[in-house]
Amino acid sequence: xxxxxxxxxxxxxxxxxxxxxxxxxxGRSVGSCARRHIxxxxxxxxxxxxxxxxxxxxxxxxxxxxxGYNRLISLELSRITTRYSAFARPVPLxxxxxxxxxxxxAYQVPYLGFVPQGGASSGAIANLVVRxxxxxxxxxxxxxxxxxxxxxxxxxxxxxxxxxxxxxxxVVRRTREIVSRNGFQLHEKKTRLTSPGGRKVVLGVTxxxxxxxxxxxxxxxxxxxxxxxxxxxxxQHAASRGFTSTFxxxxxxxxxxxxxxxxxxxxxxxxxxxxxxxxERDGTLTRA
Length: 288
Description:
Elements: H1 2-10, H2 30-35, E1 42-47, H3 57-67, H4 71-80, H5 122-129, H6 131-143, E2 147-151, E3 154-159, H7 165-181, E4 192-194, E5 200-202, E6 205-207, E7 212-214, H8 216-232, H9 234-240, H10 246-263, H11 265-282
Antiparallel strand pairs: 1-3, 1-4, 2-3, 5-6, 6-7
């Protein structure tokens, strides 16, 4: 983890992702992503299936080579920032060549590593690997007068002009082709079209003609968690909601409050104050 953090700070952070990418980038957030779609009349939302696991070790190796590292360093960096598991797909491919260096026997394995979700360097790697895909979708969107954003595996295209279902179907078809050509796959069941008059939600944020606000679902989740933890205690509430760790729930709640604060601080401020009281009462305030 420490080495991955070093790679993130000293290697990956020096390369800029595409401007349509909003996740895993300093100064960018769910709120800034959603604000790009203010004033949209219609919206198309798509999801990349198995996003991180689709980025295999060869693609990561190629990324480091493109950044400018030699073969051996690129191989080592790709090994450090990927992993494998029992469900990794066997492939009849040799390990990447390291040029004049002899192959490392322990690296002669019949499977490729992949980018692990949650790894310290994984988000930055994913953003850089998909730059070409982002450019191609952006070009297609620009040709049609659409706004395009990507937050990790969530793709959103919106338009403020005339609405046509035929145009939207064409956008989905073209996006599917671009995604496939770049080694990914759309999660077809998660593709959604919001036509004019429908409620437009991006990453849990409701987008209006003039602003963004927290969705009803996020507000309800926050207030329900706060009520349950306040009445029954953090440990009992976390267990009743299926969390395997009390402090896992605490981290989840803190993250949810931080997310909500970035969108609607006036709504979130009293909830944050009350949550601090609950944590202090239950002894988790300085932990997790």
